[in-house]
Every structure is written in C-alpha cells, then in structure tokens.
Design goal:
- The complex is a heterodimer of chains A (about 270) and B (about 280).
- Chain A is mostly helical and about 270 residues long.
- Chain A contains twelve helices and no strands.
- Chain A folds into two domains: about 170 residues, MetI-like fold (Orthogonal Bundle); about 35 residues.
- In chain A, α3 packs across α7 and α3 crosses α9.
- Chain B is an all-alpha fold.
- Chain B has two domains: about 45 residues, no CATH class; about 220 residues, MetI-like (MetI-like fold).
- The longest helix of chain B is centred in the first third of the chain and has 33 residues.
- Classes of the chains: A mainly alpha (about 270), B mainly alpha (about 280).
- Chains A and B meet through α1, α3, α4, α5 and α6 of A and α2, α4, α5, α6 and α8 of B.
C-alpha cells in the first residue's frame, strides 16, 4: 500500500519536472550574459533592459492588449446575445445552429487562418480597397472567440429563474431595463468565464494571427515567432518570462479575490 | 394558436428572454465567418489560376510526395497521441485518487505550464536539445560525444507530447472523477481484486473521457505547423508546413486551399467517429 503511494507520488513529481524543465531553463537563460549561446556565461539583466527599451516590443504589447480587450468584449456581447437567442430556438434549429457555431472550435487553427485570409482577399477585391493589418487581426480574433463565449454562457440558462424577468416587467420595467437588471446578472458568471476564455485565446493565438495580419502589424506571438526564426535570442527569454509572470500574478489575484468572495459569502 | 401568441410576445419584447431574433446578428456572422470561408476554400480548391473548374489541385495531392507528407503527419500525431495516453492516464488516475488532500495544488501544478504561450514553450526546448544545449552538456560532462537531438523526428515528437500532454490529462481526470464511489465499493464487496476493479470497472467507465482526450490531442497534433517549424528547423515537413508554404511562400492558394480542405475533411471525420464512439460507450 505504502509502496504504491510512494511510486505514484514519484511518478507525479517526474511528470511535473518534465512539464516545468523547459520553463525553468528558459527563465534561467533570460539572465545569461551571452548573445547566441546556450551555455551559461554569467548573470545579467541587460536582456530585460533591452525588452523595456524596444519599440517593437512596446508596439506588440499595445496591439496584443488592445486586440485582446476589444475582441473579448465584442465577443462577450455578441456571444451572450446569441446564446439567449439560441436558448429560445426549437430543438432542431438549436442543434443545427449550435453545431455550426462550434465548428470553429473543432477546426484546426491553420484552416481557420487560411480560410479567413482568403475571405479577406475576396472582400478586398469586392470593395476594391482595404489591406491586412490591425482590422483583419481584430475581426479574426472576434470570430474565433465567440463560440467559446456561447459555450460558457449557455449552461447558465439551466438554473436560471425566468420569472424574475417577468416580475420585472410586471413591476413596470421597460424590457430593456428588465433585460439588464433581471437577465444579465443571472448570466454574469458565464459571461465573465467567456470573456476570460476569449481574452486568453486572443493573447495566446499565433496561427490565426499569422495568416491574417499585414503591413507590419505584430502582436506578441508574431513578434516572438519572428525573433525565434533567427535562432536562440535571450530577449525572447526575458520577454516570455515577463509575460509568464504577469499572467501568473493576474490569475493569482483573480483566484484570491474569488476565494475571499466565497469566504465572505460563507459568513 | 400557441405559436402566434409566442411570436406576438417576441415582437413586443425585442430584447426579452423569449426572443429568438436576438440571435440574428450572430447567424449573419456565422454565415460570413464560418460558412462563406468554407465555400471560398472549395472555390479555390476546385479552380485554377484562370478561374476554370478543375480537379487538378485535388489530384496533385495524390502525388506520392504529398501523400507521404500527409502519412508522416498522421503517423507522428498518432504516435504523440499514444505516448500522451500512456503518460497521461496514470497522472489522471493518481490525481483522481482520494489519497491526496492537497489535490487542488497538484491540479494547479499541471495547469500552470499551459499559461505560458505555447510558442515560447516550444522554443524553450532549443535550450535543452541544442548542440550546446543542456542535455548535450550533461553528455559531455560524463565524457560522451554530443549527439544531434534537434531537427529530428524525435525532437518534433517530444514537442508534440510536451505541448499536448495536459489535453490528455484533464478530460480523463474529469471522467474518473465522476465515477460513482458506490460502484467501486460494490465491486470490492463482491470480491474483485485491484486489477479486476481497474480493468472491469474504472477503465470502461473512463472511456468517454478517453475518447474526448484522444480527439483533443490528435487533432491539433496532426495540424501543427509551429512545433515542426521550430524543433524541425524549417527543413522538416508536416502537412501544416506544406499548407503554410503554399499560401505564404509559393503563393499557390489553389493547391493550398485543396490541402486545407482535405485536412478539414479529415478532422471532421475524426470528430464524427470519436463522438460516435463516446456516445456508444454512454449507451
């Protein structure tokens, strides 16, 4: 009995080290005082300094964050409205719409990327103007995020109380107000999950961005990709370390707030 | 009768809880961003540069060169999926045991690596596998000759396993988690030993989770382009690299679309088969 427990624990530790080894080594080498090598040559902070002074990095950070926030917000609004509509559809229609809507989730990123690319080409030809850049990047990110919002919001209807909305109407609220005071709050946990999913997907995306950007517009994934093409680059290590730590701190704060909320609710 | 009543209600509450119309903007969106691109892919795939209908792009795929690339992609993805299964199932199984009180911390430890951008995680392997990388330095330290690890089949396979292992763990974990404790107790009471308990009760009950885990690993693995690009050193070809090359380097969107369409069909087929299998298991 004790042996199996010992064995399984060591297996877990082995697998955890497998998952963390590259990350730890990546972080260590962000402090390495050597430009092209993978051999340790002493401690330095100059790569971090280089990251903070780099124009391209600053632009990429700005693009990543603004696309992430705008795309996640738009996708949350459209996805929530769509989810409400889908929830009211008859069973047959609902099934068809839902499977069409989750098609992008099952489709490989590369296929989404190239198909959106030819969609934009066709659109530009039709209009006679337009080019790849921030706009196409943003629209693509909205497109692949909406299904995730819908999938996060839909389950909330199961334990929703429909009478609160009717009560709001009976008490004289206009439908618009009743919608925001009686329906939206009940869906909120799903919407927040959907927003966070969409935001993470947007920040993490490389493939779709790769095929739908243009005219020098880069986000962090694209910038890192172009930097790694020339081999090992310690600036990439420093930049990734900063990104990883920011995500870690952000999620830590969110979790902390959630657990505090739970605690205060318990009391 | 009831129908007209409902539609009247819909008209009066354009934004209400009962309205279907609220989904119309999204339906238009699906039409433009999901359905139209597929038709455009088909249009490109079945036409030539002059815009005439042709099967030439599809036929070209059946050239041994391209079939070989496809076959190689499927083989690599299958191997990665099998390895992920044998590494991941025990992890999911151990995590689902009651013995660990601090389960949340353990689960957390398996989630955190996914928060690092996956492009960066793949790049990180360059430091371990490179000619002057960590592994070769360990070999040198013990007096061995350094070996070529990077830009090989093995490196790409390792990258695939590393990236997609978490996708194997969590679906299986959640299906193991759902198993009714009483079924296990009943089996014990009826005298089954640990092996019987596992192979007759626990494993069959985790099959739906396995089915979705296999899909979640195989599908992105077969379509990958980045992992083979970084760890394969650009010279290494999977079907994803071929598609990228046709679109961005060669500029042959017609053949590229044919390839993308074939991959799309393959993935949809896999999806249908897997969801059919997991339904079978449930019934």
């Amino acid at each position: 009995m004790k042996l199996t427990k010992w064995l399984s624990l060591s297996y877990l530790i082995l697998m955890i080290s497998f998952l963390y080894a590259p990350i730890v080594i990546l972080i260590i080498f962000s402090f390495n005082d050597q430009e092209f090598g993978t051999i340790w040559n002493g401690f330095t902070l100059r790569w971090y300094q280089a990251v903070f002074n780099d124009r391209q990095v600053a632009d990429a950070v700005r693009n990543t964050l603004s696309i992430g926030i705008i795309a996640a917000t738009t996708a949350s609004i459209m996805g929530t409205l769509a989810a409400i509509g889908i929830n009211n559809m008859r069973k047959g229609t609902k099934k068809v719409v839902l499977s069409l809507s989750s098609l992008p989730v099952a489709t490989p990123d590369i296929v989404i990327g190239v198909s959106l690319m030819i969609l934009y080409v066709a659109f530009f030809r039709l209009v006679g103007a337009g080019s790849f850049g921030f706009g196409t990047l943003l629209v693509s990110h909205i497109a692949f995020s909406i299904p995730y919002v819908i999938l996060a919001v839909l389950p909330r209807f199961k334990n929703m109380n429909p009478f609160i909305y009717e009560a709001a109407l009976d008490l004289g609220a206009v439908p618009f107000k009743a919608f925001f005071t009686a329906i939206v709050p009940q869906l909120m946990p799903g919407i927040v999950t959907g927003f966070l999913l969409a935001f993470t997907m947007s920040i993490d995306d490389f493939m779709v961005s790769f095929f739908t950007t243009g005219s020098g517009v880069s986000n962090l994934s694209l910038l890192i990709f172009s930097m790694t093409r020339r081999g090992v680059n310690p600036m990439v290590n420093a930049l990734s370390t900063i990104m990883f730590l920011s995500v870690l701190i952000l999620l830590f704060i969110i979790n902390l707030r959630d657990s505090q909320k739970l605690k205060s609710r318990g009391e | 009768m009831r129908k007209t009543k409902f539609s009247e209600a819909n008209n009066s509450l354009s934004i209400g809880l009962k309205s279907k119309k609220i989904a119309i903007p999204y339906l238009i969106w699906i039409l433009i961003f999901t359905i139209l691109p597929i038709f455009l892919l088909m249009q490109y795939a079945f036409t030539n540069n002059q815009g005439n209908f042709t099967f030439a792009n599809i036929e070209r795929f059946f050239n041994p060169l391209y079939l070989g690339i496809m076959w190689h992609s499927i083989r690599m993805a299958t191997m990665a999926t099998v390895i992920c299964f044998f590494l991941g199932y025990p992890i999911a199984y151990i995590l689902s045991q009651k013995a660990y009180k601090d389960k949340t911390i353990l689960l957390f430890l398996f989630v955190v690596p996914m928060w690092m951008n996956f492009l960066v995680r793949t790049y990180a392997w360059l430091f371990i596998l490179g000619f002057n990388g960590v592994l070769n330095n360990i070999l040198r330290f013990f007096g061995f000759e350094p070996i070529r690890l990077l830009f090989t089949d093995g490196a790409v396979l390792l990258g695939l396993v590393y990236t997609f292992l978490p996708f194997m763990i969590f679906p299986i974990y959640s299906s193991l988690q759902k198993i009714d404790e009483r079924i296990i107790e009943a089996a014990r009471d009826l005298g089954s030993n640990r092996l019987q308990l596992f192979f007759r009760i626990i494993f069959p009950l985790s099959l739906p989770g396995i089915a979705s885990a296999l899909t979640m690993v195989f599908m992105p693995a077969v379509a990958t382009f980045l992992i083979s690009n970084i760890l394969g050193g650009g010279q290494y070809f999977l079907i994803g690299n071929l598609i990228e090359q046709q679109f961005l380097t060669v500029g042959n969107r017609h053949f590229g679309s044919a390839l993308a369409l074939i991959m799309f069909a393959l993935i949809i087929l896999c999806n249908v088969i897997f969801s059919y299998l997991s339904k079978e298991e449930k019934e």
